[in-house]
Amino acid sequence: MASLYVGDLHSDVTEAMLFEKFSTVGAVLSIRVCRDMITRRSLGYAYVNFQNMADAERALDTMNFDILKGRPMRIMWSQRDPSLRKSGVGNVFIKNLDRSIDNKAMYDTFSAFGNILSCKVAQDETGQSKGYGFVHFEMEQSATQSIEKVNGMLLNGKKVFVGRFVGRKDREKELGQKAKLYTNVYIKNIDENVTDKELFEMFEKYGSITSFKVMFREDGSSRGFGFVAFEDPEEAEKAVTELHGKESPEGKTYYVGRAQKKAERQQELKRKFEQYKIERMNRYQGVNLYVKNLDDTIDDERLRKEFSVFGTITSAKVMMDDSRSKGFGFVCFSSPEEATKAVTDMNGRIVGTKPLYVALAQRKEDRKAHLDSQYLQRNTNMRMQSIGPIYQPGASSGYFVPTIPQPQRFYGPTQMTQIRPQPRWASQPQVRAGTPQAAAAGYPNMATQYRNIGARAPVPAGQQAALARNAMVDRNARPISTAQQQMPGAVAAGGVRVPGARGTGSGYKYTANMRNPPGQAQGMGQAQPGQPPAPVQAAVHVHGQEPLTATMLATAKPEDQKQMLGERLFPLIQRMYPELTGKITGMLLEIDNSDLLHMLEHHESLKNKVEEAVAVLQAHQAQQTQVKKE
């Protein structure tokens, strides 16, 4: 599998940038930058799939740690099986690294021991090294050899530790309670006049002290905290238990606890804060209401009064900016039933001079995710309106198919004459279906034919074969050449008016298609005496499409009927509104088939329906624009 994982990417890196970078090595099949499902922001890694393995290996050897948008790319083979990554086989942990050592330097150091699958130096939010990293070898033997050779060596003047990687859960399980023990104690809220000696005297009664220090600023003033290191963990724990929360002679309350690194302390505080927020939201879930669009005259008391009729209110607060209302507030009820009733009755009610917006309160993160989802959906809809889910004639799955418009092939008069055989029989007089002349001549209306065929009882097997033969004859009818279309009154085989012929008001005309009796098919020019005339079939003729008769439509499957009608509607609508052709076609295909046939027979009816569809699309677009502005 010639698939590469590309990590540590800048958030602005796109698929196009990666394609431009990697296509210099070899043929790239596909590239995908992994993104957040809601915000669509880059997650910082991507997958590049090459056509052959040699190109992927060349990219891994020559482009690993290349700079892209100011950051070095970390390239490795894509590992679809997570068990290989989680097993820990061949994985090495390195700590006490100098801050100047980056991914490339560590890769160059350890690549001498074997093939490396992954190499990474841990970094903080600013991109600075945390002083430790990981190297994952392909072979366990390579990992063992690197531990033997590099452990205890000096790298950039610092002695590094190299050992087997052990997961956090495994470390806690192995060390047990020892992992939670500590000897270094942190104390804050000490008086500014306390010295190192006084700090030592405060803690010496709890055990043997190895070091102690009060932290001072550059100007010599105390920062109000310090550290004390004990020899035994039990002594440190005893000092924390007795001194934490105790009041100092100066009236301050001591904080005494285990000394932590800044990152660890921030992570713990963040975890506690998140837990507090979740508990608070669970406590007020379904009972806390968000009220927006408040009048400037409404205060806490007025807000409570307006909502008190729905139940017991535990709190009501209008958010203020100094002495001025921000226009929103919160009302908390004692039960979800009361809150639901308040939302139902108060949402939209005018209080003061403005209608209120009342809804259940949401966390900021949940509200932001919801708004991002709405914004993404709105942008998707607008993009689809502009470039199109378009109706694709000839597609068999559904009516809307996202596609790229394909170039159409046009034939000149000479080419049309060559590919279209000339009829061997005489042309019949032209009669337009749906006109008084057609009715007088006995030619039926196609929509009526379709209704009559559809209303019949199930067709016996013998008649189904006859209908199928008639349909095949309709499909074999061909329009005449372009040169013939330019002749006044040009007529196709079977008395069909040619699309775009002179003397017609619209670009498409169709007439009753007279079935040729067997004698005409043999060049005799007329039917044999004593034979009944063949049934008359009205047909729709659209330039570039085969004639469509009521029999063909009625014998087709329901899903194919819409497809056949859509293929005839599409070019007609395209002449009116080229940019909206796909959308209008899809909208019209929701109409009953007999009505669609009527539109194909009567140009004015089709034009009116198209205008209605355009008005609906314009109104929808105006509404979307208004929502976006709000």
Quick summary of this structure?
The chain has 630 residues and is α+β, with helices and mostly antiparallel strands. 40% of the residues lie in helices and 21% in strands.
Q: What does this entry look like structurally?
A:
It is a single chain. The protein is α+β, with helices and mostly antiparallel strands and 630 residues long. 40% of the residues lie in helices and 21% in strands. The chain is built from 23 helices and 27 strands. The strands form nine sheets. It has a four-stranded antiparallel β-sheet with strand order 2-3-1-6, covered by helices on one side. It has a four-stranded antiparallel β-sheet with strand order 8-9-7-12, covered by helices on one side. Strand 26 and strand 27 form a beta hairpin. Helix 20 packs across helix 21 (581-588), helix 20 (558-576) runs parallel beside helix 22 and helix 22 crosses helix 23 (603-629). The longest helix is centred in the last third of the chain and has 27 residues, at 603-629.
Please state how the strands of the largest beta sheet are arranged side by side.
2-3-1-6
The global form is flat
SS-based class: alpha+beta
Please work out how many helical segments DSSP would assign: 23
**Major β-sheet, in short?**
4 strands, antiparallel
Helix content range? 25-40%
Low-confidence stretches: 387-443, 454-531
Overall average residue pLDDT: 74
In angstroms, what is the radius of gyration? Answer: 41 Å
Distance between the termini: 49 Å
**DSSP strand content:** 15-25%
The count of DSSP E runs of length 2 or more, i.e. the number of strands, is: 27
